[in-house]
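Revision sheet: structure tokens.
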Amino acid sequence: MVQIDRTNMVSVGLDLYTVAQRHQSGLVEAIVQEQIKSWKCNPYFLSASVHQSLDGVRVFTYSQWQPKFDHRSLLIPTVFGEFFPPDSLMLEVSASKSVSAEVEIVQGDRITHLAEFRMIPANQPEMVQRTSSEVERAISNSPGLISATFHRSLDGTRMFNYGQWESKEAFEAILKQPGFNPNKPYWEGLARNEFHLYNVVHVETAG
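Predicted:
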């Protein structure tokens, strides 16, 4: 089990991979056996979790590090030459709500919803404000929503919502709510949105 640090006392790394469906399991294995094994030898490493998409063509890692450390400075294992390089970003938490005291990343059947918002840096402050309001409303009006944690990229160009759901059906129900409906979303005029659904397939902590 991994806990998301919502106080920004750690550095958050996000690595987004696209992969051919037939290679998804191979990529996950390489991340677990090569990359995370290497990361665990680094004194700045705190935790990592690996997520594979339900559609079979995406993988992402959510990693936490000692403050101010940028995991992108580390050497990439040679096995990753067989895959497309990831889109790697550094993030910080901008808003978070949960039905429990902590936001826990656990391997199992719950659904992870990763929503990506792309924007110009000038729009990120307004997106931070809007998402801070939306996370309150979502957690109060969405049966089956376990947690919602918004992150802003340090380069100002993106935001991500790491949402946890009891089931795929519970997630799909929120798309019918005002503000999430594609016809007039809360990010209208500020960002372009794309989202995918994942399962957590591996978690690792330091030590």
